Amino acid sequence: MSDWRVRAVRASKRPFTRPVAPAGAAPQPAPEHSMDPRPDQPVEHVSLERSVVDAAVYRDGHRVQSSANLADVYRELPGKPGTMAWIGLYRPAEAQLLEAAERFNLHELAVEDAIVAHQRPKLERYGDTLFVVLRAARYLDDVEEVDFGEIHLFVGPDFVLTVRHSQAPDLSAVRRRLETDPELLALGPEAVLYAVLDAVVDGYAPVIAGLQHDIDEIETEVFGGDPQVSRRIYELSREVIEFQRATRPLLEIMKSLEAGFGKYGTDEELQRYLRDVADHATYAAERVDGFRQMLQNILTVNATLVSQRQNEEMKQLAEAGHAQNDEIKKISSWAAILFAPTLIGTVYGMNFDEMPELHWAFGYPFAIALMALVCTSLYLIFKRRDWL
């Protein structure tokens, strides 16, 4: 055994406990079978075979053996034409993957990716073995989020090894579908690859529908002036970007598979199936690209509408301030007009014996005329300045 495998086996013997979900988190559904180790039980105390969701040997499209003991499955393969093993693992321990790597001669880099997980979707060929990484998606309507899963497939001449790190998609349903169609399953490991690809791509349709519904709601909220819509646009944009990272590389995967049809002798009927998956994947990728552009446009429109509302509010405040200034001008003008006769009356109302014009016969008419003259002059001045 090579050094990297020895190190991985030693690492796998250390106790490992699954992460505990945070308080208040929604409970996760159980995997297809109860073979997965209990989350609170260290792997070193659990049989590695409990990570096996299903393991079967197929001959000419029919299941001929099923066993949770992988050694039994391995023994059925060598030298038997038309025979294929399909092993499904759910969050397997490193030692279990390394055992499969030894048996199927898997490349160490691909095995390392399957152990570490969190890989981008891709297709790589190592000799006569394909290594495919896919990202499945499902829409959670209650929280308006897209939940992403990850699947690793090793596709060889007489075997398929699927390593699943998430609940979705339900590969047991894929297996049941193929088992009801022995002619398709008899086409070999590539038929299994097609079925898994088809299940992943078909799973994108509900996600697309959910995102479209959310975008429609956001458009209504934007034009309705909802102040919280900007946050919702941002959060949904993040989901769309993540979804784009799952769908966009899938197009390259399908192109790579199509490029190898002639070289690797892919059955013509299977080629048609794979082209159909490529069409659906292209549609999904284009819709997701459209969603991202729509959200960018909606965000721009929302910013414009917010700016317009702010401008309207500022305009209304300015108009209110202008009207208030006009009222203040009018009040100030009339106060100045009324102040003039008050001042004259106050001066002549002083109780002094020695005052000019106090005993003048025309003193009273003069005072009245002076008041009228001053008031008229002030009125004309304020009227010319549009204060009145």
Report the total helices: 11
Going across the biggest sheet, name each strand in turn.
Answer: 2-1-3-7-6-5-4
Number of strands: 7
First CA to last CA: what distance?
102 Å
C-alpha-based Rg, rounded: 41 Å
Strand content: 5-15%
Low-confidence stretches: 1-48
Tell me the overall shape: rod-shaped
Average pLDDT confidence is 79
The biggest beta sheet, please? Answer: 7 strands, mixed
Residues in helices, as a percent range: 55-70%
- Secondary-structure class: alpha+beta
What pattern of helices and strands is seen along the backbone? HEEHEHHEEEEHHHHHHH
Give an overview of the whole structure:
Helix 7 runs parallel beside helix 10 (268-348), helix 8 runs antiparallel to helix 9 and helix 9 packs antiparallel against helix 10 (268-348). The protein has helices at 3-12, 70-75, 94-104, 108-116, 171-179, 182-185, 189-202, 204-224, 229-259, 268-348, 363-384; strands at 52-59, 62-66, 83-90, 122-126, 129-140, 145-155, 159-164. Strands 2-1-3-7-6-5-4 form a seven-stranded mixed β-sheet. It is built from eleven helices and seven strands. Helix content is 56%, strand content 14%. A hairpin with a 3-residue loop joins strand 6 and strand 7 (159-164). It is an alpha+beta fold and 388 residues long.
Keywords:
single chain; alpha+beta; 56% helix; rod-shaped
SSE inventory with pairings:
Elements (H helix, E strand, L loop, with lengths): L2 H10 L39 E8 L2 E5 L3 H6 L7 E8 L3 H11 L3 H9 L5 E5 L2 E12 L4 E11 L3 E6 L6 H9 L2 H4 L3 H14 L1 H21 L4 H31 L8 H81 L14 H22 L4
Parallel strand pairs: 3-7
Antiparallel strand pairs: 1-2, 1-3, 4-5, 5-6, 6-7
Helix pairs in contact: 3-4, 5-7, 7-10, 8-9, 8-10, 9-10, 10-11
